[in-house]
Amino acid sequence: MRPMGGAAPSDTSRARRTVDLPDDTVPLFTVGQAAQMLDMQPAFIRRLDTQGVVIPARSAGGQRRYSRHEIDHIATLAGLMSEGMTLAGAQRIIELENEIADLRRQLAIRPIPAIAR
C-alpha cells in the first residue's frame, strides 16, 4: 500500500506543473466554510453582512461567498473584539491602520525634498 502524501517534485523537475491559484480576493468560501475556518458561529458572520461590515459576493443562487481577504478581515475584527473592543471600535481601528499604511506607501514613493540651508 502506498503512503498518503509523498514527495513533491523539485523546482527543476520536468514533472513539475504550475497551478493557477486564485488570488485572495476571489470569493470561494461559503459562510459555513468561513465559520469553520475561523472557529466561530455562522450567525456572527451573517450579522457582519447584514450590518454592512463585511459584504461578501453572492453566488448565482444567492449564497454568500467569502474571499480569503474577507475571512482575514473577519478574523481581525474578532480578534479586536475579543480584546474588549466594540464592533464599531474594531472597525475604526482597522480603518485607521489602513490609512496609516496608505500614508506610509505614499511617503515611500514620493521623494523627500531637500531642506534649504
Overview of this protein structure:
This protein is mainly α and 117 residues long. The protein has a domain at 31-109: Multidrug-efflux Transporter Regulator, Chain: A, Domain 2, CATH 1.10.1660.10. It is built from 4 helices and 2 strands; from the N terminus they run ααββαα. The chain has a two-stranded antiparallel sheet with strand order 1-2. A hairpin with a 5-residue loop joins strand 1 (57-58) and strand 2. Helix 3 packs across helix 4 (87-109). The N and C termini lie far apart (79 Å). The relative contact order is 0.11. The mean pLDDT is 86.
Radius of gyration: 21 Å
Helix count equals 4
- Mean of all residue-level pLDDT scores: 86
CATH architecture of the domain at 31-109: Orthogonal Bundle
Largest sheet: 2 strands, antiparallel
Global shape: flat
Uncertain parts: none
Q: Which class of the domain at 31-109 in CATH terms?
A: Mainly Alpha
Percent range for β-strand residues: under 5%
Question: What's the layout of helices and strands?
Answer:
Blueprint: H1 31-38, H2 42-50, E1 57-58, E2 64-65, H3 68-82, H4 87-109
List keywords for this structure.
single chain, 117 residues, mainly alpha, Multidrug-efflux Transporter Regulator, Chain: A, Domain 2, 4 helices
Brief characterization of the structure:
The chain has 117 residues and is mostly helical. Helices cover 47% and strands 3% of the residues.
